[in-house]
Amino acid sequence: MPPLVPTSREICLLALLFAGLLFMSASLPKNSRQLTELILPYSQVVQEGGGDAGAPTLETQYTLQSLNRPLSWGLGQVPQTKIVVHVPGWTIFDRLYFCNGTMFVVTDQPESIPDRSLMTSTSLFIENGPIAEASRLPTDKEMQIISTNEAARLFGTDAERLDGVTWFANDPKQFITHYYHWSAELFFGFWRTYSSLDPSIPPSGNTSLPTPRRMIFAHLDAANWRDYAAMNQWVLRSAFPSISMEFMNDWKERVDMGRVFVMDRVVFADRAAAMHGELFLRTQRTAANAFALPGSVNWWSTIRNNVVGFAGLDGLDGGSVKGAERTPVITYISRQEWGRRMLVPEDHDRLVQELHTLRDTYGYEVNIVAMDKLTRIEQFQLAGRTTIMMGVHGNGLTSLVWMRPTPKSTVMEFFFPEGFAHDYEYTTRALGMVHYGFWNDRSFTRPDVPPVNYPEGFQGNRIPIDGAAVARLCHQRLTLSDEADD
Q1: Following DSSP, what letter does each residue of 255-297 receive, concatenated?
Q2: Hey, which bits of 243-394 come out as E strands?
Q3: Alpha-carbon separation of residue 108 from 35, 95, 102 (angstroms)
Q4: What confidence tens digit (pLDDT) does each residue in 310-334 have?
Q5: Quick one: residue 115, left, alpha or beta (phi over 0 = left, psi -120 to 50 = alpha)?
Q6: CB 140 within 8 A of CB 102
Q7: Which residue of 58, 148, 258, 371 is surrounded by the most CB atoms within 10 Å?
Q8: pLDDT (tens digit, 9 = 90+) per residue, 60-100?
């Protein structure tokens, strides 16, 4: 069969169609955008276009973004590590590298880097004695300070990124599973260190700081960070609902990969390193070192308002340090059914009677509670409304961190005579509130506090307290604050 030959009519129609396509393409507006512009985040494209495209949706905001690429330097110089903030035990690094479980500080000015014993340790349990102290000193396995040339030889041409802000806790489980040490030491120190980068935080807690994306516990398994009262997880999930967590098995997986990683920004915490700090030596509180850094008087309001707000209490209601409760709230946290560190029964009864007299005489709200009998929501809400909190030295007083720091805010802590510990005294002052210790009918406050002491009877169940003396101080604190406000 001979091949088909187009007719003259078909040739004419094809020529007309081709000419029409050429005319139409020439009349279309030209797209001058580059290929790189097509992968810009949606919000940036909208901004460049004048904002007429409307608010970004979840899909448009993320589907146009490129994947998180490695930090690459090719044949050039390895980007150096920057120490943004440092006090013993608390360090903010930009571009901290790690490989095979070892941290690498890359710098061509090693003299500018603090001694590594002030930044990290072997993460062993804290034990007393020179042998134990020596065993916690870091070696090249824990951290190395290397030049850019050595880094290029060890790392190659790039490093996998952990983007955003990371909180890295280089501690064993020894103290983490305790509510006080979690909230009033670890969280306290992390946020006080990090918030030093925003010294203008207002009472509302609003901050320009990005939320940390992850917490890493390289020496702690996933089953051993919660406390028996389930408070640790509440604090974490309410303060930072989107945060992720990695534990020792996750860390081991990264180690076994043999790849180089770099953390964009990391707040690095180490309890053993903090114990070398001057402020720790004064207070025995690891977070105390971080208070040598600049910061807002409202530094804790970001965490506090998130936590109590999550519990259903408006953290902004009267949250200013200049404000005060219209009706003062006195909360006595009782340990009388706890079995350890309890008041003399008759003294407990007299204290309750004296507090009820204050209620009936002056209209104060008085709460006598055992924290373990309250739900977590009830605990956070009550602490968030409390003006004066009191009780025997113990874990229940950790709730003071959720009080509002007004001029009237006071913590009263009952000790066995001659006994004293800094735990709640220091924490109260760090929040801008006033702490009083009691030895029966004698009260004391900063700067006239006694030395740390744990006499026989400190942990016992015959701790005396003069309820009338406590009630007098309550009324004095509340009325004197009124005069100060005027």
Answers
A1: HHHT--EEEEEEEEE-HHHHTTSHHHHHHS-GGGGGGGS---T
A2: 244-246, 261-269, 329-333, 365-369, 388-392
A3: 37, 14, 19
A4: 999 986 554 334 444 479 999 999 9
A5: beta
A6: yes
A7: 371
A8: 544 545 567 899 999 999 999 999 999 999 999 999 999 99
